[in-house]
Amino acid sequence: MTDRSTKSAKVAASLRRRHAAERRFRLYGMGAVAFALACLGLLFFTVVSKGYTAFQQTYVKLPIYFDAGDIDPKNSGDPKVWAKANYQGMAKKSLRGLFPDVKKRRDKRALYKLASSGAAYELRAIVRENPDLVGTTTDVWVTADDDVDMFIKGYIRGDVAENERRISNKEMAWIEALVADGRLEKRFNTTFFSAGDSREPELAGVWGAAAGSFFTLLVTLALAFPIGVAAAIYLEEFAPKNKLTQVIEININNLAAVPSIVFGLLGLAVFLNFIGMPRSAPLVGGVVLALMTLPTIIIAGRAAIKSVPPSIREAALGLGASRSQVVFHHVLPLAMPGVLTGTIIGMAQALGETAPLLMIGMVAFIVDIPGGFTDPATVLPVQIYLWADSPERAFVERTSAAIMVLLGFLIMMNLTAVWLRKKFERRW
Amino acid sequence: MMTAETKTTNEAHMDEDGGLTDDTVVSMNLPHLTFRTRNVEVFYGETQALFGIDLDIFRNQVTALIGPSGCGKSTYLRCLNRMNDTIDGCCVTGIIELDGDDVYDKALDPVHLRARVGMVFQKANPFPKSIYDNTAYGPRLHGLADSKADLDDVVEGSLTKAGLWDEVKDRLDAPGTGLSGGQQQRLCIARAIAVEPDVILMDEPCSALDPIATARIEELMDELRENYTIVIVTHSMQQAARVSQRTAFFHLGNLVESGDTEQIFTKPSDQRTQDYITGRFG
Ligand SMILES: Nc1ncnc2c1ncn2[C@@H]1O[C@H](COP(=O)(O)OP(=O)(O)OP(=O)(O)O)[C@@H](O)[C@H]1O
Ligand SMILES: [Mg+2]
């Protein structure tokens, strides 16, 4: 009996220790999760707090006289003639009209710079849409210069010495007059979501890079998914387990660990220099990223295929299914959630990849929005890199905003992964 | 795999024996021979799992394979429908004939063989699909049904034969994996007989089932025997005695003894059989 009670006391004592260990371990776990969440939160906070202002842009309302004699002097009605008119001049004239006291040439030049150089294109587009405006004077909202924008948003402060800020006292007075007049206003920045890159921050947008990313990823997906899945199926279901397949397996794992820039060098040497594919093209970028993504898809695919219970294979084989029927009727559908998750993780990696694309010329300054697989293009992360490197203050917020767009795409892709997983998952 | 050489030697060996010998004394009228296996040896890589098995399996009979764990019953069973092909490094030699055709003939498609020799596994393994799709999988695979109505008939017939129809007829679209263990095993049997095989191999089909479900399946085997040839691996002496007409006792990869179930269980000729069926080892 005493034996029993000492034993039970021992167990009780050890129990306390074990419970303490368990509590401690749970605390470690919670700490780790909290740390990860805090880092993520900090990341989002810095990016969002720096970048949210870029979704608004300052516009200035100018009373523009659409001079018929200037736009269409010979009354031809030809849109080509209209397109060539001096719209910049109209904007300048309008600014002069708003501030008639400005007489000196230098001051005038400073005055003209309140409106963006893109204002001319905006006016041209307005005339093209509404030909009736020709010959009238109309109030038109045009994009303000990035310095004005930065001043309105408070990034250029009025209380520092004049020679240390990009806006002079005179310019400040003009801006204040315009604000008082209700002629200066922050509005939703459509340019940012619809334009390509530009030297002028107020005219720069992510759409060009997003389109480039889209075309690039399309090529990547079209190559990496079928090849990766086919390789995974072959290695897992058909290949004999011998030295050769072991070597292949090791090399696929090695490939997954190769620094991505090496794939860029490969692309440069093989696709550009040897095959002679076009530079800066989403086609080449996509192929390079597909090479980089392949091992991820193969490894994830193999793991997913391996996790399909062998009893299912035996059941189908026992009924007289051929091996490929076993794969396509049973194994692949059951492995699909895992395969798709792996694919989307690989694609998300590819979406965020910069280094290999630098090597194949996708780092260029490209204003036009790519319309196909061989048009010169850049991608979102490269665009972020380019803007982060630009000296203008207005590019700082645009960099963060572009990061937000990129993160948005990544979150969307991961949600798709979760959704696909749910959709394809089956109960056992 | 079998070489031509071993085959000829085996045949010579068989002729010496005079073909069907002592263990074919079954009853007055000789039943039709379904499987004839001679000198079957199986190697898993370097290790040999079966040593010279000579066994006959007759049509419309239940043949029970008994023996202690690891003696090679499953291995032998899997030779009969070439499921061993799927195991890397597994090598089968000897003669295995189904209705006189060499099962391991290069020209014979294992897919075709498995359509004739169905299998029910130890652990119920329904596909994660509906009950209907589970049962219809084989017929669809082999194009056995000409129309949807035809397929419906096959499904109903198979489920009825497996004694599951009444329990599931209102939920054919429910997943097969949602059934109870015993029901799942009967679904697997229905799935196997939907292909209308000549032979059904069962590897411990009742090992995970309660006595009622076991009784149900034993009853089923007795009914199925009218149309099919059944080979069953079992660890239960009672089950072997109840359902089988013939019994084969394996030990350490050897076939110790085979013959009429009654004879094996009442007056076995080998001491090891005697010991095993009386529970002295195994
Ligand atoms: N896939 C395999 N690889 C290697 N050896 C195997 C394999 N399958 C079976 N064996 C070996 O072959 C021998 C026979 O195995 P088998 O599965 O046929 O036994 P069994 O009689 O069915 O046993 P049990 O009653 O436990 O199911 C065993 O020694 C086992 O270790
Ligand atoms: Mg077994």
Q: Count up the helices of chain A.
A: 18
Order of the strands making up the biggest sheet of chain B: 6-7-8-3-9-10
SSE order of chain B in H/E notation? HEEEHEEHEHHHHEHEHEEHH
The amount of helix of chain B comes to 25-40%
Overall mean pLDDT of chain A stands at 90
Label the structural class of chain A.
Answer: mainly alpha
Largest sheet of chain A: 3 strands, antiparallel
- β-strand percent of chain A reads 5-15%
Write the layout of secondary structure elements.
The complex is a heterodimer of chains A (428) and B (282).
Chain A: H1 2-51, E1 56-65, H2 68-71, H3 79-83, H4 87-98, H5 105-112, H6 119-129, E2 137-143, H7 146-152, H8 169-180, E3 184-188, H9 190-194, H10 207-238, H11 243-257, H12 260-274, H13 282-306, H14 310-318, H15 323-351, H16 355-359, H17 380-388, H18 393-424
Antiparallel strand pairs in A: 1-2, 1-3
Helix pairs in contact in A: 1-18, 4-6, 10-13, 10-15, 10-17, 11-13, 12-13, 13-15, 14-15, 15-18, 17-18
Chain B: H1 4-17, E1 33-44, E2 47-58, E3 62-66, H2 73-80, E4 90-98, E5 101-102, H3 110-116, E6 117-120, H4 131-142, H5 148-161, H6 165-168, H7 181-193, E7 199-203, H8 211-224, E8 229-233, H9 237-243, E9 246-251, E10 254-260, H10 261-266, H11 271-277
Parallel strand pairs in B: 3-8, 3-9, 6-7, 7-8
Antiparallel strand pairs in B: 1-2, 1-4, 4-5, 9-10
Helix pairs in contact in B: 4-5, 4-7, 5-7
The complex binds adenosine-5'-triphosphate (ATP) and magnesium ion.
Magnesium ion is lined by residues 73-74, 203, 233 of chain B.
